[in-house]
Specification:
heterodimer, A: about 400 residues, TIM Barrel, about 10% strand, globular, B: about 270 residues, alpha+beta, four-stranded antiparallel beta sheet, 5 helices, 11 strands
Chain lengths: ~400, ~270
């Protein structure tokens, strides 16, 4: 029956009209969801959380043939999510409170053509079931999967994960035009590449640009792809000895260990106080990582971003390792436990990147040494702090 | 005339009145029906789930369904349970030994340790409608036990201690154990029977399996050649949960190199999710 009274609804591109928002991990914990709702209701949080994301934990039974998420949260998963049906109440709770649930299928194993083809019926049924429990948006890491979803489903919003490793404007264009992707999360190496950000918004004004603010990876990691591949295909990783399994991890820690300060300045973390500038540049949303982080730390970080965007003092009062979880590694403690306000002056300034638009991937350390000078300052600061001894540390804090 | 007409009129007038009344009733009915149906649609159609996609995602027949000739004929009730392979006999399966990240992180907070424990549940996901014939073999992986030589895993804490791994060349040091254990994991659904088949090589004289649900030892029967079959019925009332079977093959002579399990598979009825 046609509804003659109903106004024809218009659905404007989602990201265009809304102000910048956060996309944060979902822990399968109602207390956590309540906390997000509480944060959203606070006036001092200018930018709200609009979407949360996760996938089924490894301990669940329902699978489409792939492990979906790149990693999972075992801490919060105490067998609560066994089947897709178990997800339904969480999705309802979220949508009742204005939060969109995004299902992650960004596992890089979906790029394997053979695995993909052999799992197509399962994938299709799996996604149908996802739609049935209220999922409207899926984040994918493979162009193939994006194409599959575009071909086999209508009305499904598809996001390009950082796993798709979009690092050029051409890739973004392809993802949008050929794969029907409506929201793109480029590699976080491009977080401070304002030439890219500007071009993106110019070329693809209707496509959402989401930046992953706090990825712990080192800048332009030489082993990123193999790391994703190894961690993605968990059924294979199990057959692999730890020596091989952990190979990429050790590489990044080893690189960091040579000079933690350099990695600190090179890491493209978007700090909370920088977010208003990103909003001005047309960035639509900010993604925070942490599905596998402990709940208190995760909430602490989300708070730092929500309150710190307009109240830098709040964000500066956090430790560096709040924003870069890899610095939780005790080897890097002298750096990880620095308070942001101690090193604020020694961090690269966003203005520099906005004004000069350095091509970091191509020039870093050769044509441009801006960050390296900053790193020296941090290094000197830490060295001085160490010399001063524990007493002054205690007095300082 | 008037009178005449008046005399003649009542019947047609009554008829007209009746028709008018009928029409009016019909009209009322029609309006009532229309209004109700409009009201109904207004209510039902206005329950918009999502601003972007009012009706939610819908499956369609795309090129993958059509061009590839794939028929998606799966029943909605069918589940995709999973089978896990793990080889607990080898040295590296003990993640606990794997102290690097534990040491590295637990100074910050204890539960950070778990961050890297995700891998224990790795599995190959399959659909339980047929026999699953795993091509992975025990003997293929048994070489991995050579890693047990690397008891210096604790050295992971020492950055740059990679040089310690020069004894990689010890691949050939592996000695087959007197009995071998392979495991297979599936999901325990109450009142279902799981049948496990093990294929062995060498002079195997017995195959048994234990499971993680209870202490039952499942004896396997030799069904000819190197094939051994055992089955286990999940007790009624059991909570749906993962179950692992550890299949042990051995021989009575205790000869250390006589036995290997080359294949373990299991069969379950269709499971509903």
């Amino acid at each position: 029956m046609i509804n003659i009274f109903k106004k024809k609804q218009k659905f404007p591109p989602k990201n265009q009209t809304q102000e910048l928002y956060y996309s944060v991990p979902l822990l399968f914990d109602y207390g956590y969801i309540q906390e997000l709702i509480r944060l959203n209701s606070q006036d001092k949080a200018k930018y709200k959380i609009r979407s949360v994301y996760n996938s089924l934990p490894v301990t669940s039974y329902a699978k489409s043939g792939h492990e979906h998420g790149r990693s999972v949260n075992l801490q919060e998963d105490s067998g609560k999510i066994r089947t897709l049906e178990d997800l339904r109440p969480y999705i309802k709770e979220l949508s009742d409170n204005g939060l969109t649930f995004i299902y992650l299928m960004n596992n890089i194993s979906t790029v394997s053509l053979y695995d993909f083809e052999s799992n197509i019926p399962q994938l299709k049924q799996f996604v149908e079931h996802l739609a049935d429990i209220g999922v409207r948006s899926i984040t994918v890491g493979s162009q193939l999967l994006a194409d599959f979803l575009k071909e086999e489903f209508s009305g499904l919003a598809v996001n390009a994960s950082t796993m798709m490793d979009i690092r050029s404007i051409n890739q973004a264009k392809y993802a949008s035009e050929n794969l029907g992707i409506s929201n793109i999360i480029p590699t976080s190496d491009l977080n401070k590449d304002f030439a890219f950000i500007e071009s993106f918004k110019k070329l693809l004004p209707d496509v959402g640009l989401e930046l992953m603010a706090d990825e712990g990876c080192i800048f332009c990691c030489p082993t990123k792809n193999i790391h994703y591949a190894l961690f993605g295909k968990q059924e294979n990783i199990h057959k692999c000895s730890p020596l091989f399994r952990e190979f990429p991890k050790f590489i990044c820690d080893q690189i960091t260990f040579k000079s933690p300060a350099i990695q600190m300045v090179l890491n493209r973390i978007i700090y909370p106080w920088e977010i208003p500038d990103y909003e001005k540049m047309g960035v639509n949303s900010i993604k925070l990582v942490g599905r596998d982080h402990p709940k208190p730390e995760l909430i602490n970080k989300i708070k730092a971003y929500m309150f710190g965007a307009t109240d830098p003092e709040y964000a500066l009062n956090e430790f560096y390792n709040t924003y870069n979880s890899r610095f939780m590694n005790k080897v890097f403690h002298p750096y990880g436990t620095l308070k942001m306000k101690e090193i604020f002056e020694s961090l690269p300034k966003l203005d520099y990147f906005m004004d000069n638009k350095p091509q970091c991937a191509a020039q870093c350390g050769v044509a441009c040494k801006y960050c390296f000078h900053k790193a020296e300052q941090i290094e000197n600061y830490v060295a001085e702090k160490r010399q001063a001894g524990p007493l002054s540390c205690a007095a300082g804090e | 005339m008037l009178r005449r007409k008046g005399r003649q009129v009542p019947y047609p007038v009554r008829q007209v009145n009746d028709m008018a009344r009928t029409f009016s009733r019909l009209k009322k009915l029609l309006f009532a029906f229309l209004s109700l149906s409009i009201l109904h649609t207004s209510i039902t159609q206005d329950l918009v789930l999502d601003n972007n996609h009012p009706d939610g995602p819908k499956a369609k027949e795309g090129k993958y369904s059509k061009a590839l000739g794939l028929k998606f004929s799966l029943q909605p009730e069918k589940a995709f349970a999973w089978v896990e392979w793990s080889w607990p006999n080898s040295g590296w399966s003990n993640y606990g030994n794997y102290g690097a990240y534990t040491d590295v992180y637990n100074n910050t907070y204890g539960n950070y340790v778990n961050w890297n424990a995700n891998y224990s549940n790795a599995g190959a996901w399959e659909n339980h409608t047929q026999w699953e014939n795993h091509t992975e073999t025990w003997s293929q992986y048994s070489n991995w036990t050579a890693y047990s030589n690397y008891s210096n895993y604790s050295n992971y804490g020492d950055w740059g201690a990679y040089s310690n791994y020069s004894n990689y060349s010890n691949w050939n040091n592996w000695t087959p154990p007197p009995s071998v254990v392979a495991s297979v994991q599936t999901v325990a659904f109450p009142n279902t029977t799981i049948q496990i088949t093990a294929t062995t090589t060498g002079t195997t004289t017995s195959v048994t399996a234990t499971n993680t649900l209870n202490s039952t030892v499942i004896p396997f029967t030799n069904t000819g050649g190197n094939t051994w079959v055992g089955s286990f019925t999940i007790p009624a009332g059991t909570t749906v949960q993962p179950i692992t079977f550890y299949v042990t093959a051995g021989n009575s002579s205790g000869s250390s190199n006589a036995v290997a399990i080359t294949n373990v598979k299991h069969f379950q009825n269709v499971i509903t999710r």
